[in-house]
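pipeline: protein-struct stage 2 | run 1193 | Omega amino acid--pyruvate aminotransferase
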Amino acid sequence: MLDKSPRPTPINVPSDLAAHWMPFTANRAFKKNPRLLAGAKDMHYFTVDGRKIIDAASGMWCTNAGHGRTQISSAIAKQAEALDYAPPFQFGIPQAFELANRIAELAPAGLDHVFFCNSGSEAADTALKIALAYHQINGQGSRIRLIGRERGYHGVGFGGTSVGGIVGNRKLFGSLLTGVDHLPATYDREKQAFSKGEPDYGTHFADELERLVNLHGANTIAAVIVEPMAGSTGVLPAPKGYLKRLREITQKHGILLIFDEVITGFGRLGFAFAAERYGVVPDMLTFAKGVTNGAAPMGGVLVRDTIHDAFMSGPEHAVELTHGYTYSAHPLACAAGLATLDIYRDEKLFERAHGLEPKFADAVMSLRNEPGVVDIRTIGLTAGIDLAPQADAPGKRGFAGLNSAFHDNDLMIRVAGDTLALTPPLIVTEDQIGEIIEKVAKVIRATA
Ligand SMILES: Cc1ncc(COP(=O)(O)O)c(C=O)c1O
């Protein structure tokens, strides 16, 4: 059938790619065999040489409503014409207040205040700083420890790196923050392999928090931060009952619980936030990525009333929280955010993801007998497929998979080591799920 989808106008590709030091990228390999993108529409990217690539990664867990949504791009364009920039310190724009209200409405009751920043990393650092400051002003200044989790990812600021638990992201950067400890990861392949949704095994990993409390003393611990589903480390859903248990233990000891929902927010697990899926309300919840469908940088922290209100004392002319960014609640990001939330609501995309979850899980599990597949995990519209690594070359097979997908199979996936991650836009059709799975099977065979 003739493909009538729009093609981007040709783009000039510089002959010299050296100056751009790319983030989290194997730069030398990339520059020898670049994966260059020129356009995107709905479920697809277009490469600079005109190929159409199906996006099984939502870019990078961002474009939940699919690409090239004109409602979002025209909202951004209109906003840029009307008001390009406004200082967010001591001044405001109506759209920032409207967006905060809309996000708070989507969040569990009690998480009623939003602090805006520009990324998931800034959101994590903001939440950790609010936790420390809250205890300080609340007369519990001894609570200075922050607890993260092994295999957790909270971005690349010093706070997020410190509570993060991916060794490769930490080891080059010195001693990081002091006073940080980590819960164990929730993954045990022997007991959980090929689980759909939350694994049955592993609630007890939450009890390790009691051990850390015994070790350090509850009155030294400010907060615990976890992702409800650890995405960047290979899609590790929380075991059944795990988050509830963490909530009980944190509550018992006066420790704040922070959910990092940078990936799980805005429909990825079939709900506005994973907190709703699990019926667990944290004290703070970080978001980014899907809030603007990736069309403008934005992140933020949802904060519980009691924490916010504790800051609202002292002289009224004084700044209550000495924290914020030049681009907090940037007008273009606010416009993108409002248009994005309209699309999520009008197209019922969270419900759509929820409805597709069983079909998606079955489709991905059909790959279990492909060569060297050692585990598959699925949750919401997300899956991690662990491939047996090549001997003495961890990560090489995953990297080969990324290239095989892009160059040979017109497919975009994410890889974490030797894990292939699938996380398509929530607009994906059942046929497109089938197409993605066929392509992934080819990638797995090509790298075996
Ligand atoms: C759970 C989580 N937190 C934080 C971040 C960091 O977000 P950013 O890259 O926008 O700083 C990410 C990015 O993937 C993430 O997955």
